[in-house]
Specification:
The chain is 57% helix and 3% strand. The longest helix is centred in the middle third of the chain and has 24 residues. Strand 1 and strand 2 form a beta hairpin. The two termini are 31 Å apart. Bound molecules: acetyl coenzyme *A.
Amino acid sequence: MSGRENGFVPGLEGVVAAQTRLSHVDGGAGELIVAGFPVEELARRATFEEVVYLLWHDALPDVRELADLRGALARWRPLPRATLELLRAAASEGTPPMDALRMAASTASLRDRDASVNGDTAREDALAVVARFPTIVAAYRRLLDGEEPVDPDPRLGHAANYLYMLNGEVPGQGSVRALETYLNTVADHGLNASTFAARVIVSTRSDLVSAVVGALGALKGPLHGGAPGPALDVVFEIGEARRAEAVLREKLERGERLMGFGHRVYKVRDPRADVLGTAAELLYATDGDEALYELALEVERAAVALLSEHKPGRNLQTNVEFYTALLLHGLGLPTELFTLTFAVGRVAGWTAHCFEQLERGRLIRPQSEYVGERDREWVPSEGR
Ligand code: ACO
C-alpha cells in the first residue's frame, strides 16, 4: 500500500497540524483574518508595532502598552558589535543578503543587558529578532554598497526606521504608510512552510532564535518567499504590454513557473494581492512610475489568462508576491532585499506562533511511510 491510502499526504496538503488564534486563511473565499481582523482593515489602519502587539497578546495595545512596546523595540534595535562585524565580513565576501540575514539572525542570542525584560528569554528573543531584522537588512545593504550603516533613530517607528537606516533620510509619510501596509499584510498567514518550520523547532522546547533561523531557511526558497524578485524581473523583461502574452507563453512552454501566480491554499485571487495592489497604485500615482504600474496590470491579466489555458481547472491566480514586488520596487528597495523585507514582516508571525506553540502545543513528530528495500543481504565492502 502506498500514497494517500496509507495516510500519506504529499506536501501535507489539507492536513491540520496546529490550532491557532493568530490567522485564518480561507482559500476558497479568498479571505485572510489576522487575530480577528480582516487583513484589508489591519493592513490599512494599524502600525506594524500594533500588529506585533496584537499577534503576541491577542489584543490591541492601549496607549501605554503601545508606548512600552515601541520603547522596547527602540532599545533592541541597535546591533551588537559582533553582529556588525559579522555583516562586514559577509559583505566583504559578497555573501547573498538572505544568507547574511540568516547568519546575523543567529546572533540575536547575544544579550544587551540594558534591554533585558526580567530574564524572560523567549520574550527577549522575540524582541531581539523583530527589532533587529530591519537594522540587519539595512546595514548589510549599505555595507554591500560600500557605505557605513546608519544607526536607528529612537524617535522613529519601526517602518520609518527601516527606510531611514537604508537611505539615511527620514522617509515621507506616504512611503512609511506603504511599507507599513506591506509589513502588516505579510505579518502572519496560517501554517505556511516557514511558520510550520518555526513551530516544529520550538515544539521540541528549543529557543525562539533557533526557530526563527530555521524559518528564514524555509522562507528563502523560490516556492515560498523567494518569488517577488523573479516576479518583477519578468515585468521588466516584458517591458511593453504588447509583448506580455508572447513572453509568458514561451516561459510556460519551456516548463517554467510564472512567479507571483498560484498558491497552495488560495484557489481564488490572494486577498493580499488586492491590499498590496491598492497600496502600490497609490504609491505609484503619487511619487512613482505610473507606466510601470500599468504594465504590471497587463502582465497580470495575461498571466492569469495563460495559466487558465495552461492548467485548466487549477485556478492559478495572482498571489501576494506579484504586488509585493511592485510595491517594494516603488519604495526604492532593490530586488535582492524583497525576501528579506518579507522576513522583516513575517518575523512577527513566527515569534507569535512560537509563543502559541510553547503555551499550548505538543511535540510535532509525524510519521513517514517506508518505501525502501527490506531483507537486504549485508555484503562486506571488498565484495560490493
Ligand atoms: N506557473 C506555472 N505553472 C504553475 C504555477 C505557476 N506559477 N503554479 C502552479 N503551476 C502548475 C504546476 O506546475 C503543477 O502542474 P502539474 O500538476 O502538471 O505538475 C500544478 O500547477 C499545481 O502546482 P503545484 O506545484 O502542485 O502547486 P503547489 O500547491 O504545490 O504549489 C506554489 C504552490 C508553489 C505557490 C506554485 O503555485 C508556484 O510554484 N508558484 C510560483 C512561485 C510563487 O509565486 N511562489 C510564492 C507563493 S506565495 C508565498 O509563499 C508567500
